[in-house]
Design goal:
The complex is a heterodimer. Chain A is built from 17 helices and 24 strands. Chain A is an alpha/beta fold. A six-stranded mixed β-sheet of chain A has the order 6-9-10-3-11-12, with helices on both faces. The longest helix of chain A is centred in the middle third of the chain and has 16 residues. The N and C termini of chain A lie far apart (59 Å). In chain B, helix 4 crosses helix 12 and helix 5 runs antiparallel to helix 6. Chain B has a domain of 235 residues. By secondary structure, chain B is mainly α. Classes of the chains: A alpha/beta, B mainly alpha. Chains A and B meet through helix 10, helix 11 and strand 20 of A and helix 9 and helix 10 of B.
């Protein structure tokens, strides 16, 4: 059997914490091999060991049958290992070619020979069907293109083995399709690929084999054609995972959130919400389905007071809150799980405890006459941490130090604990693994069962179909249809999201 | 064992000071001076005599307040380079009140101090407002306002507070911070009651930032404006408030000079430098209240002790400035020191 890379019984510790414990990964030539694990399972650590960023305490690495010691990324490069990072490492103001040759510049008499480099880049780009313009500036090309530049960078340096760290996390569905095509071309040209991911769908679609790790331990390697998403999920999480969240029928009550004729402009001054009408009732989850960029962000920001609206009304429990400052809106009974947890959801340099009272710090018992009561704050935090299963060393840990899933759980805990009448959840599970997704969905449904209203905004159709009691489709700043998730199909939703206005849908869906 | 971050915060400035002195030694030796005699002279000039100790404390007072001003703004995400200008405005306001009224001390002195705080606050309000309202960067505005303050105060001294003279009259005794008691126990140094004000301000800064809801908001806005807005905090108000509080500290630093050390204000050809040294003090003190007090003491000691170096060791004054500059450079490059500490403490394990 021909392995291009063998990582045998790798162990890596960080001051007492075992990140990788006896993990074995063997990559065959010409295969796409998935490395699957939850957030924080140790995938990135293992790949950083392979890439020379960390030295393992135990274990052996073989490249093409020979034992090697990879002391730094340059050694990895020389061995033909290239890595496409999740967060691109590109200089925005440089051109594609300049970025690619950075650190490996072709020179002619001491001067950079950009012409030869451009030709070379173009040649590689054409060979692998990447369609990258070597002269384009990074700041002017899309995220998908930037990723291809990263791929080009590794190929330019002669990589035979490419590691992709969560490559689809930042891509649109169309770009994902194109990336998969690129994978296939790379394999055809004799490359081998390791794909780090926690998306089961992708693994089933493109990978040949998959190595699963859980909590730092190697669980095993399986052939993709001999497994299925359910088995993979339970291997990864260590228990059975329900993809379809169980829930009873909704028993909706009165309107909690009423939006009438709302008009909002986006940051560039373009009308993003054009007279939108919508209401969410107590005891139901209303899902908003739509392609990114159809006004979802502006809608949420206008409701929560983060963005000034042009006109219209937004009522919470019958009281108009439009264009009130965010605090007034929050106090009217609104909870908000923001789309961007780093930008809006958390102060990363605050402790988890401090973040837990981000909206309530000025109220009793967390403060009295303007003086904070940190004991009460951290008591509260401790309760929320255990109730919402936030995995953190302590309540005094900086939010920055937590994994994405745990940061999200902390936000969700904070928002649900305030017991809002209307909870807005924007992309609540983005970038999370199946275990965390299941947990979050259950919490949203629980909130509904307590008679609260939930507004869920998501670009993931699966999530919308699974969790919602009603689905409102947003297209170019308007609700074009309201449908019943039990009676609709992905195809129908897809058409609506693409703007084909059919029937005055939804009347029958108003359960 | 990984060193705790607290430990690192303490160790970093100490190493920086040590490196500054070390390189200073090399420079002195290279220029043909006896480094040991020089440092002895420095030490004697700062702590060798109760008089010098009094002078060191006197010098420390404005450094503490200037350092607090910079540190407070810094903790809330703003870089107040305008401490120098706010200090000058505070100095002028304090002296103005000091020379213009004749009141009982219990009213006159607090009024003069208050005037300095208000003047500093108003001068800092300008960049705060411009930043909050129009997103104008505070560094640029404060630098400009430093110069504006210098020329305004000079002009006021010439045309309002005197008849075309180069300095104001002495302030009334009822507004002075001078203390016969403190002077007598320090062999007639110029040490004054300002030290109590400076220490109280340090405690106030710590209390506001670490214990109050206002401080919680200020720090949150400093770290992440978007999350603060999401959480319902008034971002603009907090930016202005932060600058204003910083300006109060700076203005009080000016009052210390006007009501304590000098008792008057003279036309200046250039900046006092205290405001700028405040940046170094804040940096060295890790932007914490206690750190600022300690760093100010060090700077005060260096500054006063340096005066003795030419007399006792024949080392030029400029060399002391070089050493102070070196310390600042090493503090500013604390990242390198941190990295070094990390390496050493990791090696310790193996």
């Amino acid at each position: 059997m021909e392995y291009v890379i063998e990582m045998l019984n790798i162990r890596k510790e960080f001051s007492g914490f075992v990140a990788n414990d006896n993990i074995t990964l063997q990559l065959k030539k010409g295969e796409i091999h998935a490395l699957l694990g939850e957030n924080g399972a140790g995938k990135s650590t293992l790949m950083n060991v392979l890439f020379g960023l960390y030295q393992p305490e135990k274990g052996e690495i073989k490249v093409k049958g020979e034992t090697v010691k990879i002391t730094d990324p340059n050694v990895a490069n020389d061995l033909g290992i290239g890595m496409v990072h999740q967060h691109f490492m590109l200089v925005d103001t440089f051109t594609v070619t300049e970025n690619i040759i950075l650190g490996k510049e072709t020179t002619k008499g001491g001067v950079i020979d950009i012409k030869t480099a451009e030709d070379e880049v173009r040649k590689i780009s054409e060979r692998y069907g990447l369609a990258v313009d070597p002269q384009a500036k990074i700041s002017n090309i899309s995220v998908g293109m930037q990723q291809r530049v990263e791929i080009l960078k590794t190929l330019y340096r002669g990589a035979d083995i490419l590691i992709f760290d969560e490559p689809t996390a930042v891509l649109t569905p169309q770009e994902i399709k194109e990336l998969i095509q690129i994978f296939k071309t790379l394999i055809k040209e004799g490359k081998s690929i390791i794909l780090i991911t926690h998306k089961l769908k992708e693994i089933m679609e493109v990978c040949d084999r998959v190595t699963v790790i859980r909590k730092g331990k190697g669980i095993g390697t399986v052939n993709v054609n001999e497994t299925n998403p359910t088995d993979l999920a339970s291997l990864m999480v260590g228990r059975d995972v329900e993809f379809k969240t169980e829930k009873t029928d909704a028993t909706p009550g009165v309107d909690v959130l009423e939006i009438e004729d709302l008009k909002v402009k986006d940051s560039r001054g373009v009308q993003a919400i054009k007279g939108l009408n919508l209401s969410v009732r107590a005891g139901e989850i209303l899902g908003i389905a739509g392609v990114d960029g159809n006004g979802q962000t502006e809608l949420i920001e206008a409701i929560t007071g983060l963005r000034k609206a042009e006109s219209g009304t937004v009522k919470i429990n019958g009281k108009n809150v439009l264009n009130l400052p965010p605090r007034k809106v929050t106090e009217s009974g609104l909870g908000h799980i923001p789309q961007d947890r780093h930008k809006h959801g958390l102060v990363l340099n605050y402790t988890i405890g401090e973040n837990m009272v981000l909206q309530t710090y000025y109220q009793k018992p967390f403060s009295k006459s303007g003086v904070m009561n940190f004991k009460k704050i951290y008591d509260k935090a401790r309760n929320l941490i255990s109730e919402f299963d936030v995995r953190t060393p302590s309540e005094y840990t900086l939010a920055r130090a937590l994994s994405g899933g745990n940061q999200q759980k902390a936000i969700i805990g904070r928002e649900i604990d305030r017991n809002p009448d209307i909870l807005i959840a924007a992309q609540p599970t983005r970038g999370l693994d199946v275990g965390a997704i299941e947990f979050i969905h259950k919490r949203l449904i629980e909130q509904r069962d307590h008679g609260k209203a939930v507004l869920l905004v998501s670009f993931e159709l699966d999530e919308i179909m699974n969790v919602s009691d009603r689905i409102a489709v947003i297209y170019e700043g308007e609700i074009v249809a309201i449908v019943d998730p039990k009676k609709t199909t992905e195809q129908e939703l897809g058409l609506l999201m693409a703007g084909s206005k059919k029937k005055e849908a939804g009347e029958d869906a108003n359960v | 064992m990984q060193m705790s971050s607290r430990m690192k915060n303490i160790l970093t400035p100490i190493i920086a000071v040590f490196l500054g002195i070390l390189v200073g030694t090399i420079i002195m030796v290279a220029s043909g001076y006896n480094a040991i005699t020089a440092y002895q002279a420095l030490w004697n000039g700062a702590f060798g005599d109760i008089y010098f100790i009094g002078e060191v404390i006197r010098q420390t007072i404005p450094y503490i307040l200037a350092g607090l001003a910079v540190a407070f703004a810094f903790k809330t995400g703003l870089f107040n380079i305008g401490v120098e200008g706010q200090l000058l405005m505070g100095w002028m306001a304090a002296v103005w009140v000091g020379v213009s009224f004749d009141l009982p001390k219990i009213i006159h002195l607090p009024l003069a101090v208050l005037a300095a705080g208000v003047a500093g606050a108003l001068w800092a309000f300008i960049p705060g407002y411009l930043k909050a309202r129009f997103r104008v960067h505070e560094v640029i505005v404060t630098i400009m306002l430093n110069h504006t303050a210098l020329y305004i105060t000079n002009q006021v001294i010439r045309s309002v507070l005197s008849d075309g003279k180069e300095r104001t009259d002495m302030i009334a005794d009822s507004s002075s911070l001078r203390s016969v008691f403190l002077e007598s126990i320090t062999d007639y140094s110029r040490m004054h009651w300002g030290i109590t004000i400076a220490i109280i301000c340090a405690i106030i800064m710590w209390f506001i930032l670490e214990k109050t809801t206002t401080g919680f908001e200020l720090r949150a806005v400093g770290f992440n404006e978007h999350a603060s807005q999401y959480a319902g905090m008034n971002v603009k108000r907090n930016i202005i408030l932060s600058m204003v509080i910083s300006g109060i500290f700076a203005g009080l630093a000016g009052a210390m000079e006007g009501l304590g050390t000098f008792g008057y204000m003279a036309v200046k050809g250039g900046f006092t430098g205290v405001g700028f040294d405040g940046i170094a003090v804040a940096l060295l003190g890790g932007n914490t209240a206690i750190g600022v007090v300690l760093a100010a003491l060090l700077f005060g000691g260096l500054k006063v002790g340096a005066l003795n170096m030419p007399l006792e060791a024949g080392v030029p004054n400029e060399l002391v400035d070089i050493i102070i500059a070196l310390i600042i450079i090493f503090v500013a490059s604390s990242y390198i020191i941190r990295w070094f500490i990390d390496r050493v403490s990791k090696k310790g394990v193996k």
